[in-house]
Every structure is written in structure tokens, then in C-alpha cells.
Task: inverse folding
């Protein structure tokens, strides 16, 4: 297995383990979002027995990527789902959670 040309990088954040974000760290989400998710997951795990960092980070990821797809596809959920390779209703669900307009009416009132 080659490791010299590996492109995937973990985005470290400053935490109790001494991890720090560096300018060369590549991640779609800000390091502060990752750190907040880690801290929150530790607190949740301490009180409930399990963390929820994945769900929080997945929601942040959707908020980061979906607006670009909505703009590119003019809000067409079917086209967005084709490009993402996921079901149209999944796009609608993720967009709703990310508080995006899925009706296609945003911005059209002043366009007449």
C-alpha cells in the first residue's frame, strides 16, 4: 500500500490530546466545528453513554455542500439527487435539516 501520495487527511483540532489545526489541513468543515463536535460528543457520552458527533458533523457537511448544488441545479431536487447519487427524498430531508428552501420559491418574488 502506498502512503506517500495519500490525499485524505484528518483535520485535527486543538483538544485535550494536543491536536492542532494547521493551515495545510484540508477539510470542508472548519476545525472549530470538528472540535465543537468532539467536545459535545464527550459531554453527551458522559451523561447518556454515547456520543452523537457523526450526526452533528453530517448535518454540518450538508449545510456546507447543499447550497452549491441548489444553485447549480436551480433548486431542482431530481437533478441534485442525480448529481449526488442519492434519493430525491434524501436530498429534501437533508435540505430541510440544513434549513434550505426546497420549494424553489426563494428569490423568485423580486425576479419578476
Result:
Amino acid at each position: 500500500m502506498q502512503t506517500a501520495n495519500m490525499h485524505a487527511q484528518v483535520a485535527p483540532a486543538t483538544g485535550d490530546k494536543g491536536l492542532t489545526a494547521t493551515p495545510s489541513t484540508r477539510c470542508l468543515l472548519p476545525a472549530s466545528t470538528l472540535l465543537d463536535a468532539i467536545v459535545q460528543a464527550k459531554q453527551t457520552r458522559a451523561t447518556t453513554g454515547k456520543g452523537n458527533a457523526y450526526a452533528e458533523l453530517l448535518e454540518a457537511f450538508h449545510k456546507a455542500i447543499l447550497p452549491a448544488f441548489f444553485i447549480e441545479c436551480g433548486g431542482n431536487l431530481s437533478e441534485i439527487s442525480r448529481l449526488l447519487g442519492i434519493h430525491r427524498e434524501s436530498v429534501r430531508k437533508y435540505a430541510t435539516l440544513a434549513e434550505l428552501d426546497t420549494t424553489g420559491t426563494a428569490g423568485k418574488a423580486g425576479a419578476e
Remarks:
- The first helix runs from residue 31 to 48.
- Confidence is low (pLDDT under 50) at residues 1-13, 107-112.
